[in-house]
Amino acid sequence: MFTQILAPVDLAHIDRLGRALDVAADLARHYGIPVCYAAVTTPQPGTVAHSPEEFDAKLQAFAADQAERHGHKATAKTVISHDPSVDLDHALREARQEVGADLVVMASHLPNVGDYVWPSHGGKLALHAHASIFLVRDHED
Amino acid sequence: MTDDPTPEGIPAPEGAADLIDTDYAIGQDNIEGQVGPFGFDIHNPVFMISGLSIMAFVFYALALPEQAEAVFGWLRPALTSTFDWFFLGAANIFVVFCLVLIVLPVGSVRLGGRDAKPDYSYIGWFAMLFAAGMGIGLMFFGVLEPVYHMAISEPLGVPSPIAEDGSIIPENVEAAKRMGLAATIYHWGLHPWAIYAVVALALALFTYNKGLPLTIRSAFYPLLGERVWGWWGHIIDTLAVFATLFGLATSLGFGAQQANAGLEHVFGIPVNISVQVFLITAITAVALISVLRGLDGGVKVLSEINMGVAALLLVFVLLAGPTLTILNDFVAGIVAYGKDLPALSNPIGREDTGYMQGWTSFYWAWWISWSPFVGMFIARVSRGRTVREFIICVLLIPSLVCVLWMAVFGGTAIDQVLSNPDASSVKAQVIDSYNPPMSLFAMLEGLPLSAITSVIGIVLVIVFFVTSSDSGSLVIDTITAGGKIDAPGPQRVFWCTFEGAVAIVLLIGGGLGALQAMVISTGLPFTVVLLAMCFAIFRGLQSER
């Protein structure tokens, strides 16, 4: 059915991604395919790491931890963006293409009126990416 | 599922060695939340104090305009005449400091660590630092200053070639021409770019090599230690936001007046508040689109377009103007600048106080108050360069471009004034009456196709304002987000809009001049800040070796 999952993650807010990470792991085990955990960082120091290299090391460790917990194969993909507040969607699209993922599993907030001005990242990805996108809400009404 | 995103035992990156060991985590003092549907992530003391004090000052300027005008009207000349020696002396130190860094072994330190690769190509990098740094100034002062210094301000006592009755005094012409260019190049060459380079280098070094947040306070870590994350740091960052926002708002207000003058000249559009408010709104709207398209998709693209169009105008004036004279002026300007630099930059015992205090001291205070904004923006786009490469490109190349610009625009204007004074619009607008906004258009009027080139001039002026406004909004957003680059987009929309709103309110209510004087007054404390930065840079670079 699928050959590769991409799971975009925000290392600064891992606590908000619980369901999406579980769904990605379940699907990976179900289809026997690997998950690539992708995250976007800046050249400047940020909340998670002092440099892109340190960020990448943390993402690799995170992916290894997920693989050990859930028993699936996992890799990590760090994307460096000069302006992630704006370029995140584009960075994720490129990451999906580079990784060759045909299924993206990512967390997304409940829709609200703000999405008319700033659409959700998951929504933008679903609009443009030539792949299946599985958006996982943290909770449902 | 782990709740700990920062597992133990991860080695420090090899590229960015010698990180500063601090317990401070970037964003730890930030407040995250929602205003309606929009998210925010702000450094609360800095964001709130900056926003509220800006509103308080605007309110003061509107409520008590005469008092504000009197206080700040006194403050500006008082500062630039009392502390002229300090501004001139400090600027000399910055130039010497930068030149020394080029030749010292620490010049080989790479910003971002040994293995870092530059984020931007030379063209994109150069276009951005130039457009943010002084593009708009060149449009307005490129004609005005060389002519004014040649004919009126008499730097170093070089006499004017224009007699009181308007006739030309032939024996004064050559020396005055050379001095007009040299005195202008002095204000746009090594010194301002050294000021920017010091701030930018301090921020880039402490951000990329030491792992501290991209915000002004980080450069003070060697001096203040952990105290930099407390109120000392809040004050430094707030002062930077203050100077940047008021600097941008007052420039936007004055710029709208100047663009309006150009529109009247070309299209006969009347000069009034409504047109100027419309211009500010339009500039802010385009700047909003630019910041929402981001650094690569908006700011960089606009900067490159601007540089391309400015280069075309430069080539046109070079070819349509007196080409040989201009090329001669270019060489003569550099020679005169080199020769007169020691005398022009001498901070004490000067007799040409009109030039020294009225122009040089004012410029230095202005460049210094502008430096947190431009320096931080340059730092943001300069990762991957060595210190030597950084200084050469930020100090020497822009200086050379400025010399060329002044030689082409100023040289052409001076030629128009001296070769046919009675028919010269430049003489009428700069010497006979002091009308700065018109100086560029007056010079273009003396060349072919002036209807087209004047329109290009207006467009360039407006787009240069957009590139200052969008990069300024990014800088303020980063400082008020505690150095976080990935703060939610609505915040930069807030700052960009706020900046336009402040400009409009002050334009309508009066008070632009008072607030510009206040911006300049921030130049004094920032001069001390910049001197401290030189020490911090040196300490920081030493530990990189």
Description:
The complex is a heterodimer of chains A (141) and B (545). By secondary structure, chain A is of the alpha/beta class. In chain A, 40% of the residues lie in helices and 21% in strands. Chain A has a single domain (5-137), classed as Rossmann fold. Chain A has helices at 18-31, 52-70, 84-99, 121-128; strands at 5-8, 35-41, 74-80, 103-108, 132-137. Chain A has a 5-stranded parallel beta sheet with strand order 3-2-1-4-5, with helices on both faces. The longest helix of chain A has 19 residues, at 52-70. Chain B has 545 residues and is mainly α. Chain B has a single domain (32-542), classed as Up-down Bundle (Amino acid/polyamine transporter I). Chain B contains 19 helices and 2 strands. In chain B, strands 1-2 form a two-stranded antiparallel ribbon. Chain B starts with 29 loop residues before the first strand and ends with a helix. The chains are: A alpha/beta (141), B mainly alpha (545). The A-B interface holds A 11-12, 14-15, 18, 21-22, 40, 42-48, 50-54, 57-58, 61-62, 65-66, 69, 82-87, 112-115, 117-118 and B 1-7, 10-16, 19, 25-27, 36-38, 112-113, 119, 207-208, 211-214, 292-298, 380-381, 383, 483-490, 492. Chain A: Residues 1-137 form the UspA domain. Chain A: InterPro entries: Rossmann-like_a/b/a_fold (IPR014729), UspA (IPR006016). Chain A: This is Nucleotide-binding universal stress UspA family protein. Chain A: It comes from Rhodovulum iodosum.
Outline of the structure:
Chain A: This is Nucleotide-binding universal stress UspA family protein. With 141 residues, chain A is of the alpha/beta class. Helices cover 40% and strands 21% of the residues of chain A.
Q: Count every beta strand of chain B, where a strand is a DSSP E run of 2 or more residues.
A: 2
If helices are DSSP runs of H or I spanning 4 or more residues, what is the number of helices of chain A?
4
Output mean pLDDT of chain A.
89
Which structural class do you get from the secondary structure elements of chain B?
mainly alpha
Q: Between the first and last Cα atoms of chain B, what is the distance in angstroms?
A: 42 Å
How much beta of chain A, percentage-wise? Answer: 15-25%
